[in-house]
């Protein structure tokens, strides 16, 4: 399988989405000059170029792209060439309305924006395959081509008729018989029993809550249907260029794609990373995105396909990045394993919906602060390239378990609390590890966990039998596990397990009876000995062999276990406030033999090890001194560091042990 090194030739990729079709060709010359000044070695071209390439059905306008590819090659800049299939030209919707997706109310998503394609439309798929085929045939041998980028942020749901047909086919594949489907969906409830496959619909707008398993399966199906589109295009380009890697960019924490399943079908995993510069924990969110993507790549290469050099334009209020933040977050991506640091987009647009979204070259042009910082980042990444090439993050001994099925099932109507948001819970636990300076990986609950010293389940409402057996075997084999509340409640069909929690898990954690769930209101806190819990609490009776490490204090649950332990298995029936979760988790991690990347770090400083290098990243504004025992060289400054390094606002150091 081709890897990123084939594309990078040993360099960290640096560059971004480039939309030359938005500019007169004189500007291209200017672009090249500035790209070279900034050390740009990679551009992603063609993401939204379908109407330029195929202005009328079947036509081909490749002239501009030929000239662009040649220009990039002449200037030593590699091209990640995108298939343009995320945004069909207006003629397609006009001539073939069935290529337009419908929402759950039956409303059409019209052209005029983007991503208005019906994933299961045969006509859409035919046109998408044809343009992909022709692009691959024409540019497969072009020396500028380094990678294929399929579509963009696959994200369309479709409740329309062709999607309904495809959904039924998918269900037939999963269940075989209607009886099996009726059983899995529990259709005895509310008179929903199906007598014919034709009666089954995507979960369209209904009078009252839809069947939850139908909704769950529709989400599974959507991820698979989009994946079929991806795989079809991937196979076309791979047939032409078996040695050119293929990717498609993820949105992190996006419901529509089961990233575990998708990542296994890509040569290179890539992600679009947009933490909010105003978020005091933006650095933590970036770390989470990197940890998640690195883990999805499962030891393979991965890239930040997009980040913003300044503001985005899709939040309520869109803040610029203060000086130094773009550099800090770019170095963080490399620290956490990225082999590419790229942006949306190269040159800020003057027209269209994203004209206020930043670019590497902002409206202020080359004299603007944004471009000046981009130049510095390009130069520093070039310095690091050789040392980080082919290296991996080390010391990531903790696995945080993450699963789309659990997310899909837990977030539905009819649940006990609308306050429990799965990504927010995962983020709270990752934050605790980040604050404890423990490098985390992510894993699927059915993955082999034996390499990890500690396994953390922030919450997995749905767990398959295989996953449960996997966890039990992991602990039996000497592993330590910590679980958050509302875990192991449902089976693969979203059927509540006997006792409200799987019996094997109750045995694992020492829970005799789970009497009731006690969800908390938005601002409510529950008293626990030594701290306060948020979001949730549970009325649990411990089994004899377990003990309540920390009881609830006050309120209805006074004296009952909030934190339970049985041997190496821990269960937290509430979400401790952040100031309590991290020391609790840090203590468990330490007992499990997990070491932080560096001891005695000042608050706000992140330390990560990649290969032989130690990255220090300061997310705060006040100057701090970081103790680093021994002699090192800072690759960014070329200076020696003896026993300590000083980091200013958003400062960073990349240390290599001095010989
Ligand atoms: C996504 C898309 C880009 C662009 C950016 C803006 O990541 O892939 O085309 O719209 O968002 O942040």
TrEMBL record:
Pfam families: Glyco_hydro_42 (PF02449), Glyco_hydro_42C (PF08533), Glyco_hydro_42M (PF08532). Residues 17-382 form the Glycoside hydrolase family 42 N-terminal domain. Its EC number is 3.2.1.23. Substrate binds at residues 114, 152, 314. One of its GO terms (molecular function) is beta-galactosidase activity. The keyword Cell membrane does not apply. Keywords: Glycosidase, Hydrolase. The keyword ATP-binding does not apply. Residues 396-594 form the Beta-galactosidase trimerisation domain. One of its GO terms (biological process) is galactose metabolic process. The active site is at residues 153, 306. Transmembrane segments: none annotated. One of its GO terms (cellular component) is beta-galactosidase complex. It catalyses: Hydrolysis of terminal non-reducing beta-D-galactose residues in beta-D-galactosides. Belongs to the glycosyl hydrolase 42 family. This is Beta-galactosidase.
């Amino acid at each position: 399988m081709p890897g990123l090194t084939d594309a990078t030739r040993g360099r960290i990729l640096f560059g971004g989405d480039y939309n030359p079709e938005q500019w007169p060709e004189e500007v291209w010359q200017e672009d090249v000059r500035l790209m070279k000044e900034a050390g740009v070695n990679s551009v992603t071209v063609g993401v939204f170029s379908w109407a330029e390439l195929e202005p009328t059905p079947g036509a081909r306008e490749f002239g501009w792209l030929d000239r662009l590819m040649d220009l990039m090659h002449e200037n030593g800049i590699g091209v990640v060439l995108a298939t343009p299939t995320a945004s069909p030209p207006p003629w397609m919707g006009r001539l073939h309305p069935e290529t337009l997706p419908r929402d759950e109310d039956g409303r059409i998503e019209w052209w005029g924006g983007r991503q208005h394609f019906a994933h299961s439309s045969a006509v859409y798929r035919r046109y998408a395959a044809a343009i992909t085929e022709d692009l691959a045939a024409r540019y497969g041998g072009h020396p500028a081509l380094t990678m294929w980028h399929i579509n963009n942020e696959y994200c369309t749901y479709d409740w329309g008729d062709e999607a309904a047909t495809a959904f039924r086919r998918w269900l037939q594949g999963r269940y075989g018989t209607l009886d099996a489907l009726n059983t899995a969906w529990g259709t005895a409830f509310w008179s929903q029993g199906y007598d014919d496959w034709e009666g089954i619909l995507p979960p369209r707008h209904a009078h009252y809550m839809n069947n939850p398993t139908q909704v769950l399966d529709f989400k599974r199906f959507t991820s698979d249907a989009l994946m079929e589109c991806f795989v079809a295009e991937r196979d076309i380009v791979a047939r032409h260029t078996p040695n050119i890697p293929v990717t498609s960019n993820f949105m992190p924490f996006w419901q529509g794609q089961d990233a575990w399943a998708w990542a296994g079908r890509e040569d290179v995993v890539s992600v679009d990373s947009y933490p909010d510069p105003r978020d005091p924990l933006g650095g933590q969110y970036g770390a989470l995105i990197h940890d998640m993507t690195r883990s999805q790549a499962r030891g393979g290469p991965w890239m930040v396909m997009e980040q913003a050099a300044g503001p985005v334009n899709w939040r309520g209020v869109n803040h610029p990045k203060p000086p130094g933040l773009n550099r800090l977050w770019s170095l963080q991506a490399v620290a956490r394993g990225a082999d590419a640091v790229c942006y949306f987009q190269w040159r800020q647009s003057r027209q269209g919906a994203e004209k206020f979204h930043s670019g590497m070259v902002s409206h202020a042009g080359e004299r603007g602060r944004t471009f000046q910082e981009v130049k510095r980042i390009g130069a520093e990444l070039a310095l690091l390239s050789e040392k980080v090439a082919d290296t991996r993050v080390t010391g990531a001994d903790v696995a945080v378990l993450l699963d789309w099925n659990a997310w899909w099932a837990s977030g539905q109507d009819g649940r006990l609390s609308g306050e429990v948001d799965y990504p927010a819970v995962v983020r709270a636990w990752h934050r605790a590890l980040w604050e404890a300076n423990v490098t985390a990986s992510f894993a699927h609950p059915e993955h082999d966990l034996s390499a990890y010293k500690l396994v953390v389940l922030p919450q997995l409402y749905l767990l398959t039998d295989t996953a449960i057996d996997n966890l039990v075997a992991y602990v039996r084999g000497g592993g330590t596990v910590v679980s958050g509340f509302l875990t192991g409640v449902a089976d693969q069909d979203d059927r509540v397990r006997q006792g409200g929690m799987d019996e094997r898990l109750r045995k694992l954690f020492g829970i005799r009876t789970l009497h009731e769930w006690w969800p908390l209101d938005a601002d409510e806190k529950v008293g626990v000995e030594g701290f306060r819990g948020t979001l949730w609490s549970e009325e649990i009776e411990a089994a004899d062999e377990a003990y309540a490490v920390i009881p609830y204090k006050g309120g209805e649950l006074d004296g009952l276990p909030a934190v339970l332990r049985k041997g190496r298995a821990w269960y937290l029936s509430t979400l401790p406030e952040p100031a309590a979760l991290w020391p609790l988790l840090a203590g468990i991690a330490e007992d499990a033999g997990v070491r932080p990347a560096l001891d005695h770090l000042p608050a706000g400083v992140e330390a990560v090890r990649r290969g032989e290098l130690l990255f220090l990243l300061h997310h705060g504004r006040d100057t701090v001194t970081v103790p680093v025992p021994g002699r090192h060289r800072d690759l960014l400054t070329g200076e020696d560091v003896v026993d300590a390094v000083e980091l200013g606002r958003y400062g960073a150091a990349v240390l290599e042990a001095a010989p």
